[in-house]
Amino acid sequence: MSDNSFSLIASQQFDIQMNSKQWRMDTFNQLSKDFQLSGVSIESVSEEFDLTEIMLAINDSIQSVKSNKQQWDNLNYRIDLPTKIDIDCLSIEEASRLFLLRCFQKVWIRKHYSNSISKDDVNDIEEHLKP
User: Fold this and answer.
1) pLDDT tens sequence across 87-103
2) Taking the CA atoms of the chain, what radius of gyration do you get in angstroms?
3) What separation in angstroms does the CA of 102 have from each of 29, 80, 88, 109, 129?
């Protein structure tokens, strides 16, 4: 599968799954983890994990860190956007949406592939990895 087809699938899934509170919560938790690991703070959001509220929190964090090149670079590295995207040319709102979409992709991949491995396969892998 090419990067473009994966991006299209993830974007379509994003639009569908963001209607679910659980997906919004998992995506925001991944986003918060990435921000924290890069040394950038992000405000918490209400227990409803409203998408507008999440976007505002991301916007505020990006606004506060964008002028600090080292933190900005650390955040971009941690979020791991494709290198062909020039993040510095995007508006804060565009960057926020891309950050959220990328964190959604991480969650989607984790859920999609962790569910596709059977318990027997996991046991075989663990057995194979034993010294």
Assistant:
1) 889 999 999 999 999 99
2) 17
3) 13, 8, 16, 11, 31
Between the two ends of the chain, the Cα-to-Cα distance in Å is 35
Token digits of residue 13? 């899934």
CB–CB of 3/82 below 8 Å?
yes
Q: For residue 34, what are the contacts with CB-CB under 8 A and spacing of at least 6?
A: 75, 78, 79, 103
Report which of 29, 88, 85 is spatially closest to residue 54, judged by C-alpha positions.
Answer: 29
Span 109-128, pLDDT tens digits: 898 887 665 555 545 544 54
**DSSP code, position 80:** T
Q: Is 98 exposed, middle or buried (0-12, 13-18, 19+ CB in 10 A)?
A: middle
**Is residue 23 a contact partner of residue 15, using CB atoms and an 8 Å limit?**
no
pTM for the model: 0.78
The first and second tokens of residue 119, run together, are 């318990």
